[in-house]
Design a protein that fits this description.
This protein is an alpha/beta fold. About 55% of the residues lie in helices and about 20% in strands. The strands form 2 sheets. It has a 5-stranded parallel beta sheet with strand order 2-1-3-4-5, sandwiched between helices. The longest helix is centred in the first third of the chain and has 52 residues.
Length: about 210
């Protein structure tokens, strides 16, 4: 009614506001489309990351074998290499720590009784900085020895003499567990934060500089 009562005056303003409303609608539509595209891209990236972790053992897994007995290292090297793993060797705990400084290692097979730095102290040092799966090897088979090894941070404890095939099965089990934990951490995160950009996967929203967009 007011449009007809006030006549041309309001009519002029309506004519001026109309294009602005249209432009605003177009901008909001483009923004919503952009948000949807970003959310879809993020989901595809997360899916690709999870799939990468599933096939990672087939691509390359670095196993560090730490033992002062060269024969044991040779046997493990052969069995691990036959399973497609890349094997790095160390003679004692000191060499193992040096290798960890510049090599990407996915699992450690660690002997307990070694010169310079034994497996127990090496494991304690490693656990100060990393949660790499560690399988301890030892000729000590008393329950207290096993408890000590596991208490220092080892994930598994195998006594010598050992069956190489059983040890390989334990290696695979530890790597599967580690991959599952990593992929679960990725998939369980509902928000991705990049500086001032927050993407919520569950709510399908994007927040930029505190401004939330649906």
């Amino acid at each position: 009614m007011l449009f007809f009562i006030e006549g041309r005056y309001l009519g002029d303003h309506v004519q001026e506001v109309g294009p602005l409303i249209y432009e605003y609608s177009i901008r909001m539509l483009l923004l919503r489309t952009l948000v949807i595209i970003i959310v879809v891209i993020v989901k595809l990236m997360l899916s690709a990351i999870k799939n990468t972790w599933r096939i990672l053992p087939m691509i390359r897994m670095n196993i560090l074998v730490v033992d002062d007995d060269p024969e044991i290292r040779d046997v493990l090297h052969i069995y691990l290499r036959n399973e497609g793993y890349l094997v790095v060797e160390a003679e004692d705990g000191v060499q193992a720590l040096e290798i960890l400084q510049h090599e990407k290692i996915h699992l450690i097979i660690l002997d307990v009784m070694m010169p310079n730095l034994d497996g127990i102290n090496a494991c304690l040092r490693i656990r100060e900085e990393s949660d790499i799966p560690i399988i301890m090897l030892s000729a000590k088979e008393e329950p207290l020895d096993k408890i000590t090894g596991l208490s220092t941070g080892a994930d598994d404890y195998v006594t010598k003499p050992f069956n190489p095939l059983e040890l390989i099965a334990r290696v695979k089990a530890q790597l599967r567990r580690q991959q599952f934990i990593t992929s679960s951490d990725i998939s369980d995160s509902s928000e991705i934060v990049i500086d001032d950009l927050i993407i919520n996967k569950n709510q399908h929203t994007i927040t930029v500089h505190g401004q939330r967009y649906l």
